[in-house]
């Protein structure tokens, strides 16, 4: 039996990842694939600590936050109950809403980027994705979506910070250009147009 594929979605807050993940999941199932959808931060106890920091209830230094995301990601990959590794090994594809690219872009604006990248990329427990899809929507429309959908804003959810994060994402994608399979999708188009692109990209990796 062949192993499942790990597909990661990235994008700014409000870029429409949830909608596109649901549409891709449906298409993959139509193609007879088993699919497990998951997200970071996880619902582990570390994930809870992270959410308290994102909500602004507890202040944490960017290095400390990077380390919490790292611990949560190791748990997410390696735990023996519902870890990503288990699903991939039994032939299930995994779609993950955010992964280490978010640590590079979000924590990488305040913590040392090389250190954050090194910790994540050189940890053998953390599986390298087969594909990363970055939904590239403009900051104004992301901000409108945050405004409509959220009761409160998290610490990163303001336009100035999102601008810095977006810049970091692109710097990181440039650095990883030869090492990782990253596809940037223009998410400012209609939902079906964006989805059609994503499905094409998925089909192109599925046979490899
Ligand atoms: P959440 O509200 O759970 O999801 P959404 O992706 O829909 O906004 O927010 C997750 C937040 O965590 C988001 O602002 C990005 C941030 N984040 C990091 O800062 N570093 C990371 O490594 C990850 C995985 C997420």
Sum up the structure in keywords.
about 210 residues; alpha/beta; Rossmann fold; 5-stranded parallel sheet; 9 helices; about 50% helix; binds thymidine-5'-diphosphate
Q: Give me the number of helical elements.
A: 9
Strand content: 5-15%
CATH class equals: Alpha Beta
CATH topology tier name:
Rossmann fold
Structural class: alpha/beta
Give the second-level CATH assignment, the architecture.
3-Layer(aba) Sandwich
| Gyration radius over CA | 16 Å
What is the topology, as strand order, of the major beta sheet?
A: 2-3-1-4-5
The share of residues in helices is 40-55%
How far apart lie the N and C ends? 14 Å
- Give helix and strand order, one letter per element, not per position: EHEHHHEHHEHHEH
Unreliable spans: none
Summarize the main sheet: 5 strands, parallel
Name of the CATH superfamily: P-loop containing nucleotide triphosphate hydrolases
- What's the count of strands? 5
Bound molecules: thymidine-5'-diphosphate
Coarse morphology:
globular
Mean pLDDT: 96
Count structural domains: 1
Q: If you had to describe this structure to a student in words, what would you say it looks like?
A:
With 208 residues, the chain is of the alpha/beta class. It has a single domain (6-205), classed as Rossmann fold. It has nine helices and five strands. It has helices spanning 17-30, 45-54, 62-78, 84-89, 100-106, 113-121, 139-149, 159-175, 191-206, and strands spanning 6-11, 35-39, 93-97, 131-136, 182-186. The protein has a five-stranded parallel beta sheet with strand order 2-3-1-4-5. It starts with 5 loop residues before the first strand and ends with a helix. Bound molecules: thymidine-5'-diphosphate (TYD). Thymidine-5'-diphosphate (TYD) binds at residues 13, 40-41, 54, 69, 97-98, 102-103, 106-107, 154, 156.
């Amino acid at each position: 039996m062949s192993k499942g594929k790990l597909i990661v979605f990235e994008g700014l807050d409000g870029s429409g990842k949830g909608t596109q993940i649901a549409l891709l999941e449906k298409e993959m199932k139509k193609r007879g694939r088993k699919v497990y959808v998951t997200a970071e931060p996880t619902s582990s106890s570390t994930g809870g600590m992270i959410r308290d920091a994102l909500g602004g209830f507890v202040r944490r230094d960017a290095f400390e936050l990077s380390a919490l995301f790292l611990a949560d990601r190791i748990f997410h990959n390696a735990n023996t109950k519902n870890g990503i590794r288990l699903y991939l090994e039994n032939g299930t594809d995994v779609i993950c809403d955010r992964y280490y690219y978010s640590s590079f872009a979000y924590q990488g604006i305040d913590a040392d980027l090389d250190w954050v990248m090194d910790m994540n990329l050189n940890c053998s427990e953390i599986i390298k994705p087969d594909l990363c899809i970055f939904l590239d929507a403009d900051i104004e429309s992301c901000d409108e979506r945050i405004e409509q959908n959220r009761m409160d804003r998290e610490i990163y959810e303001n336009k100035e910070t999102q601008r810095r994060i977006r810049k970091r994402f692109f710097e990181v994608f440039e650095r990883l250009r030869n090492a990782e399979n990253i596809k940037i999708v223009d998410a400012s188009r209609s939902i079906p147009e964006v989805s059609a692109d994503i499905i094409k990209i998925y089909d192109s990796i599925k046979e490899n």
